[in-house]
Amino acid sequence: MAQSYYSLLAFLILITLCCWRLIHNYQTRQAHKLFAEQYGCLPAPRIQNQRPWGVDRLEQIFRGDRESRLMELFMFHFRQTGNTVEEVFIGTTAFDTIEPANLEALLSTNFKDFSMGRRREITFPMFGDGIFNQEGAAWKHSRDLLRPPLQHKHYENLTAFKQGVDDLIDILSSQSAVIDLQPLFFRLTLDTATEFLFGESVNSLKAPKSANEQTFGEVFNSAQATVTQRFRLPGFYWMIGGSKFRKACNNVHCFADEIINRNLSRSSGEGRVFLDAVAESTADRDALRGQIISLLVAGRDSTACLMTWTFFLLVRHPKVLEKLRTEINCNCSDPASLTRADLRKMSYLQNVLNETLRLYPSVPVNTRTAKRTTVLPTGGGPDRTAPVLIPKGSTVAYSIYAMHRRPDLYGMDAELFRPERWDEDMPMRRDKTNATWGYLPFNGGPRICLGLDFALTEAAYTVVRLLHHFPVIRLPAGQKVEIMGVEKQTMTLVLSSTEGCMVDFASREEQEQDA
Ligand code: HEM
For binding heme, which residues are annotated in this chain's numbering (predicted)? Predict the structure, then answer.
């Protein structure tokens, strides 16, 4: 008797829940219909799925990732379907866009309608509380706090970058002629960033590792690798982690605390602008550590990727390399007296960096999540110009990589590396919105990168020093020259080169002959 009573009760609860769900879905559909009518929204074209719940989309992404061709897959979908598309991804509706007007809405005009989604939960164990994963008032406070110590007056004379580049040149001069620059650039940017942020470099370029000793770079890489995996499956991020991840995060925190404590116990000095400025207004040690780790994540890999792709492209385009060398030789007789202002005057160098970030933006794909039902201004309807309704909770992914390769924005040769285009009248410059929002390697709007100038200065300085020091820099014999974008790429939080960046600095004798 009691058993049938409980079965009946369970049945009634199930029926009630189903009815509630149906009514809720109906009401939501009606509300969306009204909203769409009010704003003239029409559906965006949909990526066709071959399997229910968009499972095939997940399979494609995993395959693309395994084959190191994820960006090609995204480009294919945009070209085939449209610049703004709707897709079903593991049972939920999501949107993808490479339309400058939509990016303006997402990142600026409708900024308040969007959040960072699950970024905080995904990154918190490693990053702690920092600008990268904060929102609202806490984020605004962090921006106000971090902006002043990142101002260019603190690295105008370039001393912040000098030691790291000296160490890099020592390594390149002492090793064999052909060398993979990519891992060295990751170590260079770690050294420069720790020097600038903590007031003390971890010296990953020059410190030989003693047996069994873990380095800061290693513990940092290990924790960050798991964070990357958690980003891949945002709805199921909690399944990825476990005790190994917790231990890796704890190691990062211990390393960072040790360096912070050591430096704060010294009396303040020139090399510690950043740590002093942040420590002054952040009494809480966890908060201080959170900001510094967030900045290391934001600044290290992205700048290393920029330098890697710059040399990857330069050795494959010898004429560009020679033109750049001529500009550097004319403007820099003694690198010891270089300043940031000198670097900014080298217009071809700036074009080379702009063009590299166009073809290989360090953060090629990013997402936002709608906090409330809202609108993207274009991409819907038969002619794909009507506004598109974005229901509350939907993810909007935007691919800077694919947008930067649009021929209607950059010309028919958009896939080619041609720094000269930055001095020309590119198609995107004929429209104000496209001109402002069609090139976004550093994001835009209120959350634009705070390290933009720091990164471009560090990269420019490194390029100048290496070209000045080595009269011969070339593609090693036997290295492939493929169409840009077809080479293998590794997508973590940033886009790196799967096969590294092999460069031939020629033998010492050849260098001397050429000098
Ligand atoms: C080539 C190098 C770099 C690139 C391409 C780059 C790109 C970006 C992008 C795309 C974002 C937006 C992320 C998002 O909102 O989802 C961002 C944010 C940020 N970047 Fe960079 N970045 C670079 C270097 C740096 C450096 C060197 C630093 C600091 C030293 C830095 C500090 C930051 C900070 C603090 C944010 C967060 C801004 C906020 O949320 O308000 N970045 N960066």
Answer: 449
